[in-house]
Amino acid sequence: MTEESISDVFVINPIPGSNPPVAKKKRNLPGTPGKCLLFPPISNFSEDSLIVIFVNLMTKCCLRFPHMIWVIADPEAEVIALSPKTLMATNRFLCEICGKGFQRDQNLQLHRRGHNLPWKLKQRSTKEVRKRVYVCPEKTCVHHHPSRALGDLTGIKKHFCRKHGEKKWKCDKCSKRYAVQSDWKAHSKTCGTREYKCDCGTLFSRRDSFITHRAFCDALAEETARVNAASSMHSNINHHLIGNQIGPPMAQHFPPIFKQISSNDATIDQTRCGLSLWMGQASQFHDSIPKSLQEIHQFGSVISRSIYSDLLVSTSNPPASGYHLNWVLGNKVSSSHAEELTSTSLPLNNVKENGAQLVSVPSLLSTQKLHSHQPTSANMSATALLQKAAQIGATSTDTSFHGSLGTKCSNSQIQDGNKYSGLYVSNTPPTSFGSDLENSANDISNLNQLQMQPAKRQRLQNEDSSGGQTRDFLGVGVLPICHPSSINGWT
Amino acid sequence: MKLSSAKISKESKGASPSHGGHHKNSFHSKRQSHHSILPLQPVDQLEQWSSVAVDMYNNSSSSNNNNNHHHQPQTSHTSTSRSSDYSAGGDGEPSAVGNKWASRLLKECARAISDKDSSKIHHLLWMLNELASPYGDCDQKLASYFLQALFCKATESGQRCFKTLTLVAEKSHCFDSARKLILKFQEVSPWTTFGHVAANGAILEALDGEPKLHIIDISNTLCTQWPTLLEALATRNDDTPHLKLTVVVTANIVRSVMKEISQRMEKFARLMGVPFEFNVVSGLNHLGQLTKEVLGVVEDEAVAVNCMGALRRVPVEGRAAVIGMFRSLGPKVVTVVEEEADFTSTRYDFVKCFEECLRFYTVYFEMLEESFTPTSNEKLMLERECSRGIVRVLACDDDQDSEGERERRERGSQWSERLKEAFSSVGFSNDVVDDVKALLKRYKPGWALAQPYQNETGLYLTWKEEPVVWVSAWKP
Questions:
Q1: pLDDT over 90, % of chain A
Q2: What is the largest CA-CA distance in chain A?
Q3: What is the pLDDT of residues B352-373, one digit of tens each?
Q4: N or C: which terminal CB in chain A sees fewer CB atoms within 10 Å?
Q5: Residue B263 forms contact with A (CB below 8 Å)
Q6: Alpha-carbon distance A349 to A473, whole Å?
Q7: Distance from CA of B310 to the nearest CA of A (A)
Q8: What is the CA B52 to chain-centroid distance, rounded?
Q9: How large is the ipTM?
């Protein structure tokens, strides 16, 4: 499939009549994406589309939001370019009386009321608000181009700080540096609490001693794979990305991923970068795969390990060669399997029961366990891969996690369900994704705890389902818009 | 044993009348306690016992005027109070020396050897032999290992002893044991990781932005420095440079494990996604034989030289040449990590060298004692490794050494003087200092970072306020 055709698939105009009313912009609600197209049952798609969808899903490692794929097209979004000064400015709105600074004009106005000054709150404009996307002012940055714009003001601010700003915040314990205060805070909460586990079973509380051990560990030398039983996943709970099964053969294949794992806490801009990839740069997804993988890791991603492992397992992967994950996923899947992808229904219900494995993608990829699964068949069809994914997802019992996690992945642009440019995978984020690292860190830790305590998981699941989670095409989570039966339509 | 104790008490009995009043009194009091001496005594009794013997010799030798100049600090002992004897052991207070018997005995023995006072030598060696044990407490261990060196010195069998020790060590040495040892050591003590973190930080900063890196590693830590550097290279930027690591190995023990190490390093670099090349330069007798060609330095690469515990192995006279050779490689940065001890300027004075050696290894042994668990096998192995070093420094003659490698340590200030000839010092950035501080926080308390005064270079790792390791960075 050519890149052009891919983008054609993605740039689909909203189908009139299928648009839900423009919902109030609320970040923390399961968003109704508004002018978006509900991904029709798989049988309605051509093979090519399915392949593209599948490829994008897999390669972007967006298992965190295993939901229906929302194909959004918004060529009319308003592109806003703010200056670096504006982006870095905090509290630009100053009270003339007391000099207090506020981030938003609305807040300042409310404050002025306290001084008995004339104030005016801006009303929400009645006309339809054009979706705004923001570009990064840094010319060398990927997000400088409007096609790679980010949809959230806070997001672009954080991106700019992270990528191009000075790192003023420093962690005491490990002296990692951060440009954004919320990143630093989130890191400080988890710093030192992580445990790193080597393949050989040794636990480390210190990253540097873990790395050194890893380099000399016998487990590194082993080329043999071990069986990756789904039940054994739970033993990997709470383990750092790196700590999780960085088996040599797979490990070799995803240097960029590992890079990001090592970099620990998120630089959300990377995530945004990956997300913006969804925004229509289909042509670039091959290149962006490593980044998207990276972004996943930056989340401390909680991606179903089994899903990943199986997916990767099913692609032929000679250990000795220097594969790269993106090659495995991107090239293999897209090129050789494209034509084999057929419209296969995924057993969504199965996915629900799959216990979300709190293992990051790199760990998934890197685990030695993966190798044992590798049939040398390079010919496993994309359809089969999808099926496998569904099956694995089926064994997961933490659907709610997927839901909540997936929401994290989804760009906060989803919030108001307005126009978006490009493709993105939607979900109903309990917390908005890129804009709130802290929440995600909390959620991750929450998830971890939940993983540890299946009883709690059920509770959370109940809570989430009452909150109206989206359900992905793998059956995890609940799509607010999508009719349940349409989910079953996948089956 | 009873016989010998009786002998001692007899001697002390015999000697006591000839002393001055003060001594007499104290001897009497000691004598009474000595009657009940058994081989294993509480330490304070032991040290009293040893003090008696020491005093006895001092007093007898004081009558030999020709020896007086060696006993300058002790001729006063005969006329002054006992407390001055204690000062020989380095403590001014009698009450505080309960655990210093080893130190005093050893120093006395060293002096005796230097004076070639054979009866005294025999006696002290015998006493040390009775009291020492490599499995006891710090004092006993120090006594044991230094006794070995003293014995070799007295009998001029240092070289042979060293060879034997080396052979024994090589036989039991393998990759697994070496790896386990050094990783465990790094886990409980920042002795080596301090240098690693600081050097890596300096190297990364100096080589930032370079596409081709060549690090020349001459160290004694079996490449445990490099995984964290590889990880940093992989994660720092989007573009990972190519790293060529050339490891220079001279000791036979290390040579045998280099194959395994190289495999692991290569695999790990692949894991990290860092283009990597690993070379080992072995077959050299000493570092003076290194040349640019041997190291494989090519034009377009950015070179960093990492010397960790390496320069001290260069013969003293050849150090300037080796430093000059490093300079000729045109490195962007040279990192030097050494331990704070001076065996070089004292190399012609046995007693001074001995005392310095004892001081340093006392700190080291105490550090090991407190860092490891009491029954740790790794601690025992590290202590045994020290024994070879101690024998070598104290009992082997410089010119006699065929291997050409000697571990004559120098203090940071001394190394600075040498390095200043060819390089200028580079300070460690705040980030690196923060990294080091964060590292030290991860270990047991007692460790601290000391930054020297303005005119000095590098950073010091201190253990209980005593500087033990020095790290510095230099550029041409």
A1: 0
A2: 76
A3: 999 999 999 999 999 999 999 9
A4: C
A5: yes
A6: 10
A7: 21
A8: 31
A9: 0.75
